[in-house]
Amino acid sequence: MTGFGLLSFLGTLAMVVATDVNSSNTECHSPFTEVAGRCLHIEVATTGSWHNMRKLCQDLGGDLVNLSDLQFYGDLILYIKSLHLPNVHLWIGATDEATEGIWMWTDGTPVRMGTPYWANYKDNVQMPAGGENQNCAMLDINMHYYFNDYGCSSPDISPICEKYHEKL
């Protein structure tokens, strides 16, 4: 299957999977918005390093978003596209700073590698290939919001924050 064919297939799959991004009874308080049962805040007015944007999310009572659930990832992409945002990359809560090549979400769970998450960039492997210089993950606007590894200190990326609910 060609790269374009794969993108078309995955785009169609995302449309089928993400039928209603605001269908739950989750209550989110400002600045968070309910998306597929989770409370999110996309802060496009503020950009900064991965660590600074993670701190911003934590100050709001959450963290950078975890996209380990494929259904939610598809719903999020549809939501982002519905906002008609300016051309922005978006930090997510994945990094391999602790151990090069071992990608983890901020909650300590492993990040799934390859299709359907990672962008098909340069060498067509759909895997992070930035080595020690690119240890933080973002949704890459130039790659249709697939994951891409990037330098954590890049100051020009906005965060997607997720508010976590208290466990009863």
TrEMBL record:
Source organism, top-level taxon: Eukaryota
InterPro entries per UniProt: C-type_lectin-like, C-type_lectin-like/link_sf, Ca-Dep_Lectins_ImmuneDev, CTDL_fold
Entry keyword annotation includes rRNA-binding: no
Key words of the record: Signal
Record-annotated C-type lectin domain positions: 35-153
SMART domains in alphabetical order: CLECT
Signal peptide positions (record): 1-18
Name used for this protein in its record: C-type lectin domain-containing protein
Organism the protein comes from: Scylla paramamosain
